[in-house]
Amino acid sequence: MVEQLSQGEGDGDCFLLTPNQSMSWRGNIRIWLAAFFLSMVISTGMLLAGAWPVLPFAGLELTALAAAFYYTSRKCQKREVLTFSRELIRLEKGLTRKEKQWELPRRYTRVWQDVPRHPWTPPKLHLQFRGEEISLASFLNIDDTEELIAILEKKGLRVEKRRRPEKLWF
């Protein structure tokens, strides 16, 4: 998702880049609790019928589901803040707080777009200055990536396309 935080003056134009998140943490907990109660009802019925080995496997299944919900929710907490000032481009990355920051001169920074191999795959964007290549919003979907490319071009940056060499499958 691309969201404009501030416009003009002060620090310049500022954009928040985040992955799409279909459900909040509370929503994930509610789904997990529903699965837990349903699983426990079924497991209790199986236990009373004499099939006691079902109970530990139900616990393993619920533990794996909880781990998957946590992992996915944690990945959806990524944040990137892209700020355009008159002379600089500032990129800040982190999960729940700023962990890394780059300040690149606007005039000499190049933007690369890796052309995807498949039409359903979103293109990957990179900022490049003096041999350092920084991935930009790798979590965005196709529509949001196109929106970000339009913003970059509107800000006067030329987005250059390139095709990466084919990698082997292993």
Summarize the structure.
The chain has helices at 25-48, 54-75, 142-154, and strands spanning 2-6, 13-17, 79-84, 88-94, 100-105, 110-114, 124-129, 132-136, 159-162.
> How many helices does DSSP assign?
3
Going by CATH, the architecture of the largest domain would be Roll
Radius of gyration: 22 Å
Mean pLDDT: 91
Order of helical and strand elements: EEHHEEEEEEHE
Secondary structure class reads alpha+beta
Describe the fold and architecture.
The relative contact order is 0.14. By secondary structure, the chain is an alpha+beta fold. The model has no long low-confidence stretch (mean pLDDT 91). The chain has two domains: 2-20 and 79-162, PH-domain like, CATH 2.30.29; 25-75. Helix content is 35%, strand content 29%. It has a five-stranded antiparallel sheet, with helices on one face. The protein has a four-stranded mixed sheet with strand order 8-7-6-9, with helices on one face. The protein has helices spanning 25-48, 54-75, 142-154, and strands at 2-6, 13-17, 79-84, 88-94, 100-105, 110-114, 124-129, 132-136, 159-162.
Task: List key phrases describing it.
single chain; 170 residues; alpha+beta; PH-domain like; 2 domains; five-stranded antiparallel sheet; four-stranded mixed sheet; 3 helices; 29% strand; elongated; membrane; transmembrane helix; transmembrane; DUF2244 domain-containing protein; DUF2244_TM
